[in-house]
Amino acid sequence: MWDFFWRRLTGLIVVMALVATLVFFLTRLAPGDPAALMLGDQASAADIAALRAVYGLDQPLLVQFGLWLKEILKGNLGQSIFLQRPVTQALLERAEPTFFLALFSVLIAALIGIPAGIVSAVWRGRLVDQIVSALAMLSANIPSFWLGLLFIQFFAVKWHLFPVAGYGDPGAPLLERLRHLVLPATVLGLVNSALITRFTRASMLDILSEDFIRTARSKGLAEGVVVWRHAFGNALIPVITVVGLTAALLVGGAIVTETVFGLPGIGNLVVSAVLRRDYPVIQGALIVVAAIYVLINLAVDLIYAWVDPRVRAQ
Amino acid sequence: MTVLHAQMALFLKRLFRRRLVLLAALILSVLVISALLAHWVAPFDPSVMKLVRRLKPPSDVNWLGTDEFGRDILSRIIFGARASLGIGFLVVIFSMGIGTVLGLLAGYIKTLDAPIMRLADAMMALPDILLAIFLMAVLGPSAGNVVLALSIVYAPRVVRVVRASTLVVSALPFVEAARALGVSTFRILRVHILLNIASPILVQATFIFAYAVLAEAGLSFLGAGVPPEVPTWGTMIAAGQQYADDAFWVVLFPGLAIVMAALSLQLIGDGLRDMLDPKLRKAL
């Protein structure tokens, strides 16, 4: 198990180092000098040169990369050009809506996807299976921002059930803030439930064709017990994996949804940073999101290896 | 030639035996043909503004209503199909091109495997839409850059599929035989391997087409895609968003176009995969 863990961890470090390299050098391909961007249009050439020196922008690119990497390892993601504060602080301030949005979306996606997958596997080929598969296919191909606009129209504007947008006043109680997340989390959960449905269905079909299921049935066990205890218990492992992956994907998928619903989360921060070319914020957000993604993946792998000894040997 | 034709006909007959796939192919053909013949098919000029007729609901004149400048929405959707499907198609071509070459190299040449795959892993650690808007921030907004950015985003998926298939095929005896005969690596890759892994690549291409149509719309909606004056399904929704409360058709119909295009592509991809993957075919 430890051996497996270390192998995965080194793989993760390599991937993160590559992400950092990609992010750094791609940003440097962008037109415009960061120092000139920071000082605005009125700055003189001398001012720009002075600021370049302060930020080490006059150094060779590789030296700059080394310095930047050193700061990141210390947890310093740099200074936002427009927000007058460190990137880490800006990200932390925006973390709450994104965190809850991702959490609730995963829960909704799992609550839709797992039962739907089980039902369509148990009644494979029947009408209910076809309906579930069709709905899963449909939901995977609906643009989340468009579904969001539809939801706002009906549930907020027409029927006044939920707030149209935003995250409540800064001082509002947590419950009030969470009420603002019902619509966006439902949209994101629906759109992301398709993958979980398909995986659960496939995994259940695999297990249901195993010999021990036939044995369980021939023992005279009730079909409910066979499906629930014998089949679902064993199908759960791949399902955990796909739920984990969905969680990791949602961190990014939240970007568009946050914009539609005007949620002041990390996605919203990234979009405004892109439109303003606030590169330190973009870089920082990319690195943090990638880190969350690989860490969730690592956690999923570890759970998998812990539950299923065959995985460790690979 | 006739043998090839007969094979092709048999292939399509089997693919379209599933009525849903046939329906998807028909919908997609209608979208593609109307995009290609937009000048003849569209009832109105998509950019002519008639302010007296702004935000009119669907009627027998403007079947899908008019937008905030009184432009005909149906005509804009038809012209928008050019950009949306055109960008999607080009993304397929480029991501397939880059991904296939790198995937073949990673799968066949051992020393290149680790570097290429770790790079693909790193790129896939960034969510698609996040990587895409980052690239758009670096490249600047234009239709060409949307193609470039999305091709880079989807290439790693192709690399993974092509590498996995290459590993399987290159372990087969006929590849070893070719190597023993002294056939050059380039020729082995091109003739012996590429032709034998064409089906997973084709399946992947339809999926990427669907993803690219959705992603282009998302980017344009965020303002990080095609410039707003170019009609695409995404820019139409983005522009119509603020009028949605009074004139809902402004965002409804372009969105339906996106869903129809992405869904048909996905269904065709599924149909192809079920048919071309012998393991699945047996299971079904």
Distance between the termini of chain B: 32 Å
Number of strands of chain A: 0
- Name given to the CATH homologous superfamily of chain B: MetI-like
SS content category of chain B? mainly alpha
Radius of gyration of chain B: 22 Å
Number of strands of chain B: 0
H and E string of chain A:
HHHHHHHHHHHHHHH
The N- and C-terminal alpha carbons of chain A lie at a distance of 11 Å
Q: What would the keywords be for this entry?
A:
heterodimer, A: 314 residues, mainly alpha, 15 helices, B: 284 residues, MetI-like fold, 13 helices, 74% helix, 0% strand, globular
Structure explained in plain terms:
- The complex is a heterodimer of chains A (314) and B (284).
- Helices cover 78% and strands 0% of the residues of chain A.
- With 284 residues, chain B is mainly α.
- Chain B has one domain: MetI-like (MetI-like fold, Orthogonal Bundle).
- Chain B is 74% helix and 0% strand.
- In chain B, helix 5 crosses helix 7.
- Chain B is globular and about 75 Å long.
- The model of chain B has no long low-confidence stretch (mean pLDDT 88).
- Chains A and B meet through helix 1, helix 7, helix 8, helix 12 and helix 13 of A and helix 5, helix 6, helix 10 and helix 12 of B.
